[in-house]
Amino acid sequence: MKRILFTAAMACGLLVGTGCNPNKSESGGQPSTEFKIAPPSTSTHLKPNSNKDVSVGVDRKDLKETVTVSIADVPKGLKVEPMSKTAEPNIKEVVFKVMAEAEAQPGDYVIKVSGKPQTGKENVGDLKVTVDKP
C-alpha cells in the first residue's frame, strides 16, 4: 500500500512540475522553434517604374520568439524596402515594398526571403515577382 501511495505521489509531482509551463511545447519538452516563412503563393505582378506592398507570413506554430525576416538575392531592376524586418511574437506577417525600377526587364524573378528566430533554424521561402511589359 505504501508503494502505491508513493508512486501516485511521484506521478502527481511530475504532472504539477511540467504541466503548466507556457514556454514549453505541447509535448512538454523544450520551447518550440518550429515556424515557416510564407511569401505569397502566386507571383506579384509589377510594371516597370511601379511598386506594391507584399505581405510575408510568419506561421509560428508554437514559436513564441521574435523572428527576423530578411530579403536576399534581389535581381537587377528590382528593389525591396526594407531589406529586413523584425516580427515580434504577436506579429503574424510583415510587409515589404517591392519595386520594379524603370530599367526592369519583363520576366519572372525570384527573391529569397528568410526568417531567423532568436534560437533555432532559419527558414527560407521564395517571393515570386513578374515584371510585365510596360
Topology, element by element:
Elements: H1 2-18, E1 36-38, E2 44-46, E3 50-59, E4 67-72, E5 78-81, E6 84-87, E7 93-100, E8 107-117, E9 123-131
Parallel strand pairs: 2-9
Antiparallel strand pairs: 1-3, 3-7, 4-6, 4-8, 5-7, 8-9
Report on the structure:
This protein is mostly beta strands. The chain has a single domain, classed as Immunoglobulins (Immunoglobulin-like). Helix content is 13%, strand content 43%. The longest helix has 17 residues, at 2-18. The N and C termini lie far apart (85 Å).
- With strands numbered from the N-terminus, the spatial order across the biggest sheet is 2-9-8-4-6
Separation of the first and last Cα atoms: 85 Å
The counted number of beta strands is: 9
Element-level helix/strand string: HEEEEEEEEE
Helix run count: 1
Output the CATH class name. Answer: Mainly Beta
Structural class: mainly beta
